Structures are given as structure tokens and as C-alpha cells.
Amino acid sequence: MAYKATKNPTTDLRERLFLPELLRGLAITTRHFLRNLFNPRDTNVHVVDRKGPNLVSTVSYPEEKTPYPPGYRGLHRLVPRDDGKPRCVACYMCATICPAQCIYIEAGEYETTDPSSESRVIEKYPTQFVIDELRCIVCGLCVDACPKDAIRMDTGLHTPSEYNRSGFVWDIPKLLQGPAVSHASDPWNKRASSATPPHQHHEPHTRIGEGLVPLKLPTGEQQKRTEVTDQAIPVTRFLKD
Amino acid sequence: MKALEVIIAIGVILGAIFGLSALAYALGGWIEAGFPFFGHRLVESGLPGWAWVSNMLILVLGFVMLIATFLTLAERKWSAMIQDRIGPNRATIDLPGLRGRPLGGVFHVATDALKMLTKEDFRPKVADALLFNLGPILAFAPVLALFAVVPVGPQVTVFGQRVGLQVANPDFGMLWVFAIASLAVYGTSLAGWASNNKFALLGGVRASSQMISYEVALGLGLVGVMMAFSSVRLPELIQGQTTHLWGGTVELPRLGAVNLGIPAWGLFLQPVGFIVFFAAAFAETKRAPFDVPEGESEIIGYFVEYSGMKFGLFMISEFAEVVILAAITTAIFLGGWNIGFGFDSTLTRALTQANLGWLLGAIYATVFWIKALLLCYLQLAIRWTFPRFRYDQIQSLGWKILLPIALANIFITGALILVDPSLRSLAVLGFVEIGFVLALTLRRPEPAGHEADDAHLPADAHGHAPPPLPGAAAASHH
Ligand code: SF4
Ligand code: SF4
Do B462 and A55 touch (CB under 8 A)? Predict the structure, then answer.
């Protein structure tokens, strides 16, 4: 059976005359023109919910921003400890699982005299932690892989624009940001004595701010800790410590 | 409040047109009267017939070029509105009061001009230097020369002199339009040839063949009007269109006798001629749907090698052609400055008695430009409504459809004028034709066999509601 391009080949006089159809087409475009000309634009960022006679569906970007859908997680951050150092222990799990191979880590070892390694629970820390945000495919595997909850995607930001490629290579000063997280069983937060019952010493999966416990730090350190807020922490702060 | 802003903007535009027309009349009368200044005259006997200088400056360089320049913005802005977009709105001027206000994007005109003027003027090494430079000139100059014979305003008395808004009024009137319009193709094909680029050459060849085939229909479309008013001079054509086909004089208090008649506009007498002429002239402007010489999606066109202001000349001449086509169509088919329906006689009587010739002329010129601007909108809307023609479709439309229709129209018009010199039977035929097309246009489509059109979508859908599924209608019958 031969293939028929048009299912309905019957054209009436109006379609064959061409002119009435042209006029109808012009009527449609002119109707749109007049509606958009004389009516104010609805600037609701949810385009589908726009009401009113004006039909413009543009979201005028820098002034109007479409909100991200719920569940959007955004750019990585390295989670700081209460003392401002990264929680990362340079275990290379994230760098290993990263399918885009965009995480570069160089590990350093704490001196035995360092208060952080007093108990030799934390031995390593990253001297370099770099994510190439242009190569990252935002898969989130690094977050899943991290055993220390040291890398998170909970900023809700998208990668800001830059003038050159090197600007997209984020290192510790840029990555280390956001609220500090402490878990009850953080190794640098050991039970002070056996007076604390062992059942309190578990590691719950916390959200930001949950499970923060008061730290037993020298008074000077206590002062510092409150400064750890939303800003990125300068790299010198913990590399020189 | 947006509606108010739009109305204010329209008012500003009309005010500018009115002011420029009044200036043209005043300047023309002042020149003709020999520059009177506090009772003294610079030239004792006056300079009769020298108003063309000011007319040329104000009509061609003022009106045509200004409107063409703003049409480049209008094309972008209006197309945006037709397509439910916003359009250019980013250029602003950092001055107090203007800061952060794009004013509908008017400043984009300035930025565009600046861009055109400062871009590199590049010429390919293999291009022929002389012809390459001649191309834009030859494309641009005839377009402006075309406007010389178009009358914008009537002859009125200013400073005791008869002044009209027309650069020249030669006996050959409309023949000048035909002759000069066909000259513009030289610029186009020269540009295509001299660029030494095969795509430019293709564009040039396409342009010349398209222009030549539509030249015929363009001329024949106007023959009907020339026969009806037995003249080729545009002011006489407009004068002819101000006569009333049918009319009764009513005696109104304070206004005197008012003739509420139907004016003999060319559109009413020659609707077929109007369609043929408008389509052919549209093809001459090389704009979509007749834009194969340009062919943005395939060959870029005859100006592919041009940059900077040379390209700008091609572009601005296209828009100047739009303005001039609108002006000529207004003069020939829409009665020029004629308002019709009883306004003219009253207005003329009142203002002539008050010796305000310039005011009368400026009002009429504004009416002329309102009609011309509406036609400009029509041309831009056509460009953003209709799909492009294929190249063979363009040729067959020109030779197989427009040409026979134009010839048949000439014979029928001639016969009717011979039978009834009062033009009334011609007008009856015209109204029947217009009514026929309108009836076909407004008839609702039969529901069966036609897809759901715009009207069936929910009112506030913003185009997001899916059209009803084909199966849904069938299922509902069970
Ligand atoms: S989100 Fe995926 S691609 Fe990006 S750094 Fe983490 S593991 Fe690599
Ligand atoms: S971020 Fe987590 S997974 Fe990656 S190196 Fe640090 S501790 Fe290991």
C-alpha cells in the first residue's frame, strides 16, 4: 500500500485561495502583538502559573530567577570541623570513586605533638584538596563515598562564572565553607572520661547543626570556634596551625 | 499602566510627525516667499519652486531615514511581541532621569549605529574593489530617489505661497517609481558578483531573477488605478481618491454642509490590484517570505562579504524600501492624506478660513504617515507570520498567479470604466471582492477534519496546555 503523506488531502476554497488563510495568520500574530503591547508583563518566575492577558513567557534572568527545584543540592563544600580545620582525613575515597577524576588530594601527616593528633586518632589531613568544577559531573558519588562526612553537596549554589578556566579549579580556601559539623563520636571529641556512658558515643547521621556537642577546648580555642560561621576560612588558618 | 505608557509613546510619535510636517511646510513657505524676516525679504521676488530643497531634506533625510532607522528597532521589538518575547531592553543611558530605563529599547538604535560605524570595513582580497564599493551605493541611492515623487501633504498656502510636501511632481510620476525601483537590482547583483564568493553570487542571481519577474506584476498591478483616475501623477491620483463614490450632504449646525460619502480610495476600486501590487512590491524589498536572495538559513546572501557600514547600507536600504513601499501604497490605494467620511471638507473649510494653511497641511501629513506606519506594521507582521517561499514557488507565484490575475484585473477594470465612467460599478465589484474574502476569512472552520486551532485552548494557557489528543475526540463519541 502506498504511503500517503497527507491523511486529509481535501482543501476547501478558503485554503486554495490562500488569501483568507494569510489574513487569519496575520490576525493571530496581531492579536499576540496587541495583547503583549498593551498589557503589563506578569513577572511570576513560575512561567506556567503566569496569568493575565500578556502572553510573554520570558524570565528576565538577572532580575528574575527561576528557583531551583526542591532537592537541588548544588556545589560541593568541604565541611569544617568546629576548630575550622576540614573534617577530611585525606583517605582518597572520594578521589578514587570520582568518575570524572576531578578531585586531587595531597595528604599531610599531623606531627605527634599536634593537639589534633594527641590520641593518634587523626593522623592525616589534606594539604591540597582541589576539585575541578568544570570536569565535575555533579554525580554526588564523592559525598556518598566519604567515610567522614567531610564533603557535602548542600550549598544550593551553582558554580559562579569566571573569566578563565583556572578560576573553576577550587581549592581548600574556596571549598572549605559553611557551618561546621561535629558528631558525637568525632575522634577529636572523645569522651572526656569513662563517666560518659558508651552508648552516647555513637555516630548518628546528622544534618547540619544537629548533634553539635560542646567541645572541651582550652579557653582560647573556645573563642575561635564561634568564629567558624558561613564564611570560607582562609587557608593560612589551618595550614600554618 | 502599561497601556497608558504605550498610548503616551504613540502620542509622542504622532507629535513628532506632526511637528516635522509643520516644520516642513513652514520652511517650504519661507523659502518660496524669499526668506521674509521682520518685514524684510532676502530675495525680493521670492524663490518660487524652491521648496523642494527643504522638502528633500525633511522628507527624505528626515522622515524616510528616521522611520527606517527606527524600523530596525521595531522589527526586533515587534517580532518579540508577536512571538511572546521581550525583545531588546538592555541598552540604557547613564544620565540622571534615564538611568536604568530602557524606554522600550530605543537606545539600541544608537548602539546599533555605533556598532555599524566602528566595525572593521573588510574587503576580501580577491573582490573587485571598485564594484565591491559600488554595490552598497547602487543599492541605497535608488531607494531614496524613489521617494521624490511621493506626495506626503496637500498644497496649502503658507506665507502667501502654495506649498506642498513633495520633492518633485513630474508628468511621468509613477513611471519614475517603476524605472528607479528596477535600478536597485544593480546594486544587489553587483554586490553578489564583486564579492567573488559563490554564495554571494547565488544571492545576487536569485535577487535579479526575482526582481525581474516581479517587476512585471508590479507595473500591471497599478494599471487599474491609472485607468480609473486617468493619470500617472501621484497628487492627481490622491485628488481623484478624495472624490466621493456615493454621498449625501448633511447640513449640520455650526459645521455647515458635511458630505458623509464613501471616498473613492484605490483599495475600494482595485482590491485585486492592491494585492498584486503589494505582493510584487514586497518581493522587491527582498524581505521574508520573499527573502531567498538573502536566504539567511542557506546562503547568507549577496551581502555575505560585507561588513561594517557597507552592510549597514544594505540593511538600512531594505528598511527604507519598507517605508517607501508603505508611502506609495498609501498614496495610491489608501487615499493618501484623505481622511474621508465627511472630515475633509469641514477641516479644510475651517482651517482655510482661519488662514492656518500650515496646520491643515501638517494634520493631513500626519494622517498620511499614520496610514503609512500601519502599512509598515503590516509588512513587518507579514515577515513574522508567513513561512518562506521556496525558490520555484516564488517564480510560479510571480509568473503563473500574479501576472494572469493582474492581466484579468486590467481587462475587467477597463471594461467597467468604459461602461460606467462614474467608477461606481467598479467600486461595487471591489466591495464584492473584499466582502467575499472577508466572508471566507471569518467563516468558522468545520470541526471535522481540522485540528483544534488556537481558540480551543484554555484562555490562560500561555501555550503550555497540550492540544486535545486525537483519540480523545473519537473516544467521547462512544
Ligand atoms: S560529584 Fe561526582 S564528579 Fe563531582 S567531584 Fe564528586 S564524584 Fe567527582
Ligand atoms: S573528603 Fe572524605 S573521602 Fe575524600 S579524602 Fe577527605 S575524608 Fe576521604
Answer: yes
User: Grid coordinates representing A55?
Assistant: 502572553
Question: What ipTM describes this predicted complex?
Answer: 0.83
Kindly give the number of the ligand 2 atom that is closest to the alpha carbon of A78: 1
Q: Which domains does chain A have, with CATH numbers?
A: 13-67 (no CATH), 77-182 (3.30.70.3270)
Q: What is the pLDDT of residues B323-367, one digit of tens each?
A: 999 999 999 998 888 887 777 777 777 777 777 778 888 888 999
Do strands B153-158 and B40-41 pair parallel, antiparallel, or not at all (unpaired)? unpaired
C-alpha distances out from residue B425 to B267, B276, B421, B422, Å: 14, 21, 9, 8
Q: CA triplet A106, A107, A110: central angle to 5 degrees?
A: 150
d(CA B163, CA B161): 6
Beta strand B262-263 pairing with B249-252? unpaired
Record the cell numbers describing residue B470, joined without a space.
486525537
Helices (runs of H) and strands (runs of E) counted in chain A: 7, 5
Q: Which of A148, A152, A171 to mutate to test the pocket of ligand 2 (most atoms within 8 A of CB)?
A: A148
Report residues whose beta carbon is within 6 angstroms of any ligand 2 atom: A 88-94, 105, 145-146, 148, 150-151
CA distance B358 to chain A (A): 33
CB proximity list for B63: less than 8 A, separation 6 or greater? B17, B20, B152, B323, B369
Residue A137 CA to ligand 1 center (angstroms) comes to 6
Q: Does B444 touch chain A (CB under 8 A)?
A: no
Residue among B6, B78, B462 whose CB faces A57 most closely = B462
Q: Is B173 exposed, middle or buried (0-12, 13-18, 19+ CB in 10 A)?
A: buried
Residue indicated by cell numbers 484623505: B338
Residue B89's closest CA among B108, B116, B110? B108
Distance CA B293, CA B305 (A): 14
Query: By the 8 A CB rule, do B275 and B311 touch?
Result: no
pTM over 0.80: no
Q: CA A181 to CA A212: how far, in whole Å?
A: 7
Residues A171-189: pLDDT tens digits? 998 898 888 887 756 655 5
Q: Is the pLDDT of residue A191 over 60?
A: no
Task: Compute chain B's Rg from CA coordinates.
Answer: 25
Tell me how long chain B is: 478
User: Hey, how many other C-beta atoms are within 10 angstroms of the C-beta on B67?
Assistant: 23
Q: How many CB atoms lie within 10 A of CB B43?
A: 13
Ligand nearest to the CA of A92: 2
Write the residue with the smallest CA distance to atom 4 of ligand 2. A94
pLDDT band at B10 (very low <50, low <70, confident <90, very high): very high
Task: Please report the atom of ligand 2 found closest to the CA of residue A149.
Answer: 2
